[in-house]
């Protein structure tokens, strides 16, 4: 394994240990967030993950990169342990105890397709992951990016990752007031679904997920932070639970264990 990847994985392990110790001592905010169960409803999101599945089958270090903007970095989470990649790491480690697995957070707030494409080689491909979860389109929707340009950029990024032997799963936008107020948010959703279809990448639709939650009586606002844009601890955790279930199902590895 390359030295840089080993170093990064040691850092991830240290961060996970710190997060575990933090969870052990607890805190009022954490206790409140963990006391609320995630909705027991999610649309079916079939994910084909041949490269990740092969790595696990051959007992190779499994590396997942969470790539994106502030929703990946974890803005408005109470701390790093409550970001969706950190929760996903814990859930997958619990569900796949025989697998040595790392989820590496490569989210940078304020970015979208153009900026993320510019750092794709260094921040993603150099880590040699088997799976990348690319959360993209929120800032594009807020800033009114040209849809044709958005599609070209995202398709180019996916093709580069697929050429490097990486499974790609796209993640679309959360149902937050500031996203919903954008004239482009539905276009972003449709564009990402079309890109997934054209490229053969996976699609994890937060939009459809949160619609299902609301239809089940859990309003969008329950999962959104005070800034009316990002998710709160509960939102990040419930997204991670649904994503972990989709990944485990894609691996054919049985039923996902929830945080409760």
From TrEMBL:
Pfam families, per the entry: NonGDSL (PF25182)
Keyword Signal found: yes
InterPro entries, per database record: Ester_Hydrolysis_Enzymes, NonGDSL, SGNH_hydro_sf
Gene3D superfamilies, per the entry: SGNH hydrolase
Signal sequence, start to end: 1-31
Keywords: Signal
GO molecular function: phosphatidylcholine lysophospholipase activity
Protein name (Swiss-Prot/TrEMBL): Lipase
Organism: Acidisphaera rubrifaciens HS-AP3
């Amino acid at each position: 394994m390359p030295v840089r990847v080993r170093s990064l994985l040691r850092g991830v392990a240290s961060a996970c240990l710190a997060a575990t110790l933090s969870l052990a001592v607890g805190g009022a905010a954490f206790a409140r967030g963990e006391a609320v169960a995630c909705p027991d409803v999610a649309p079916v999101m079939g994910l084909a993950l041949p490269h990740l599945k092969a790595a696990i089958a051959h007992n190779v270090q499994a590396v997942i990169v969470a790539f994106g903007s502030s929703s990946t970095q974890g803005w408005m989470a109470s701390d790093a342990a409550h970001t969706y990649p950190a929760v996903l790491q814990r859930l997958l480690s619990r569900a796949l105890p025989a697998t040595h697995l790392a989820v590496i957070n490569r989210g940078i707030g304020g970015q979208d397709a153009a900026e993320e494409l510019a750092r794709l080689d260094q921040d993603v491909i150099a880590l040699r992951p088997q799976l990348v979860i690319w959360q993209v389109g929120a800032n594009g929707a807020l800033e009114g990016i040209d849809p044709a340009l958005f599609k070209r950029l995202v398709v180019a990024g996916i093709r580069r990752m697929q050429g490097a032997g990486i499974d790609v799963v796209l993640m679309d936008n959360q149902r937050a007031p500031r996203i919903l107020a954008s004239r482009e948010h539905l276009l972003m959703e449709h564009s990402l679904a079309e890109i997934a279809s054209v490229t053969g990448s996976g699609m994890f639709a937060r939009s459809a997920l949160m619609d299902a939650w609301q239809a089940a009586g859990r309003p969008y606002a329950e999962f959104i932070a005070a800034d009316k844009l990002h998710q709160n601890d509960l939102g990040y955790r419930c997204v991670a639970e649904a994503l972990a279930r989709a990944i485990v199902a894609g691996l054919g590895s049985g039923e996902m264990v929830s945080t409760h």
